[in-house]
Design a protein that fits this description.
With 473 residues, the chain is of the alpha+beta class. It has three domains: 282 residues, no CATH class; 113 residues, no CATH class; 59 residues, Arc Repressor Mutant, subunit A (Orthogonal Bundle). It is built from 15 helices and 16 strands. The strands form four sheets. A nine-stranded mixed beta sheet has the order 2-6-7-10-1-11-12-13-14. The protein has a three-stranded antiparallel beta sheet with strand order 5-4-15, with no helix packed on it. It has a two-stranded antiparallel sheet with strand order 3-16. The radius of gyration is 30 Å and the shape is elongated. The structure holds zinc ion. The site of zinc ion has 8 residues, from loops.
Length: 473
């Protein structure tokens, strides 16, 4: 009996606006508990919310990038529930007229492309945080009122692999749009999984929702676990209970938290304290005109216009900091291929070795461009090139000064090269005889000896040419 997996995703992205959605409190992460709080976000009686225009703009940006229709007249609704981290006992959210609808995001898994439909994106406010110790529970309202976008997909995923491909692409889209910093460990992007099984061609089965995964890896594990759990129940003739489950990454399992609520359980109603808003043409057009080039668009351009290999293009767009460095370096050096090789090779290696994340990379593209000119112009060899890149990376040295001080300039002087070859040949007459008798392999050995004599600074092309002609004499 073959079960088909059906997965839908709800992704919450915390927006990187400076202030909260309905007040001027800071959204910055951390801080002493209850220091980023005012009467509005603490839900004091009698206060009124004032909508942060940037939140709407960020939502439109994401909606356009995900091919959504923008709802020109949209409004907020109240979602009522009681929980200690929610001082107002309701969350301002959107149910009836979410800001973005009917979009899609194309993913690729195992070489196959697939469009995942986005049902809607809505704006809402985050809740606070509960901190428990042995004696008591404490409330921290710093996160209360931080703006969120909830991105709801259709149940279009059939495997964990598809979910991860989607999350990766959504993550890079959010980052390139500069709407969310996507730090999973700080909870700025969270995903809930809705999963059910059905027999091929049958109606959708009963689904569960799994929450509380704090890494992409945990999401993949939670999906695998839930598929297995539901399969076991169904194969034993049991029934799946509609519920919300909490993932425990240490134990590698989830457990039921509560039965899953339906929308009517929340008694949604239109938010009376906020006016409906109208997004006019001028506003929409200005957001559209200012959309940055996205990672996948960059990849396409690097491959098609610059002739960069697909695999390198993926590395170059892993973070916008890296693609920005690549583009500056390409432009300054006038050599995109060398720029791509330098970044995907040496720079990535050095970053890995010193545990530097792409967002923290800072290196002078001007200095790297100088090095590209020196190596492609035959002034330094590849060994000296690598050594100087590392010196620029770790100590921000001036490349030309460094090369002069270390004596790394390539020997391009005919006389010096001819002398070195003469000395090597007279020291290795046996090899010369062997070569002249047709044993061509000896060439590499002689070449190596000459380079050694030149202290590794010989110009390989020139040494090769001179050595060949001297051996043929
Ligand atoms: Zn506030």
């Amino acid at each position: 009996m073959k079960w088909e997996t059906v997965i839908g995703l709800e992704v919450h992205a915390e927006l990187s606006t400076k202030s909260k959605i309905f007040c001027a409190c800071s959204t910055s992460y951390g801080g002493q508990p209850n220091t980023h709080v005012c009467p509005v976000c603490a839900g004091m009686p009698g206060v009124l919310p004032k909508l942060n225009r940037s939140v709407v703009e960020y939502a439109i940006r994401l909606g356009l990038a995900l091919n959504c229709t923008i709802t020109r007249d949209c409004k907020f609704d109240r979602k009522n529930y009681f929980y200690p981290d929610l001082p107002k006992a309701y969350q301002v959210s959107q149910l009836y007229a979410p800001i973005c609808r009917d979009g899609h995001l194309e993913i690729e898994t195992e070489g196959k492309k697939k469009a995942i439909r986005i049902r809607e994106i809505h704006m809402e406010e985050d809740a606070g945080k509960l901190v428990h110790d042995a004696r008591a529970s404490y409330m921290d309202f710093n996160r209360c009122g931080v703006p969120l976008l909830e991105i709801v997909s259709q149940p279009d995923f059939q495997s964990g692999g598809e979910v991860l491909a989607y999350l990766e692409k959504l993550r890079e889209t959010l980052l390139y749009l500069e709407v969310c910093d996507c730090k999973m460990q700080e909870g700025s992007i969270r995903a809930d999984i809705n999963l059910s099984l059905r027999k091929e061609g049958e109606e959708l089965g009963v689904r569960t929702e799994t929450k509380n995964m704090n890494s992409f890896k945990a999401i993949a594990r939670a999906i695998e676990y839930e598929i297995e759990r539901q399969t076991d129940i169904l194969e034993d003739g049991g029934k799946i209970v509609q519920e919300t489950r909490r993932w425990d990454d240490d134990k590698g399992e989830s457990y039921g938290m509560r039965s899953k609520e339906n929308a009517q359980d929340y008694r949604y109603f239109p938010e009376p304290d906020l006016l409906p808003m109208h997004i006019d043409d001028a506003w929409l057009e200005s957001v559209k005109a200012n959309l940055p080039e996205l990672a996948w668009q960059k990849r396409e351009r690097y491959v098609c216009d610059l002739g960069i290999a697909e695999s390198s293009a993926v590395v170059l767009t892993v973070h916008k900091n890296i693609s920005a460095l690549f583009e500056t370096l390409s432009q300054k050096s006038g050599n995109s291929l060398e720029a791509a090789n330098l970044i995907t090779g040496e720079i990535m290696r050095l970053m890995n070795n010193s545990n530097i994340l792409p967002e923290d990379l800072s290196i002078d593209a001007e200095k790297l461009a100088v090095l590209i000119a020196l190596v492609t112009g035959g002034k330094i060899n590849r060994g000296a090139y690598k050594e100087t890149i590392e010196a620029v990376f770790t100590s921000n040295v001036d490349p030309e000064k460094y090369i002069a001080e270390k004596g790394l300039m390539m020997v391009n002087d005919d006389k010096v090269v001819v002398e070195a070859i003469q000395s090597v040949l007279s020291d290795n007459m046996d090899s010369v005889t062997e070569f002249r008798a047709g044993k061509e392999k000896v060439f590499g050995f002689l070449m190596g000896q000459v380079m050694k004599k030149l202290g590794g600074k010989g110009n390989p092309d020139m040494v090769k040419k001179t050595l060949t002609s001297m051996l043929e004499k």
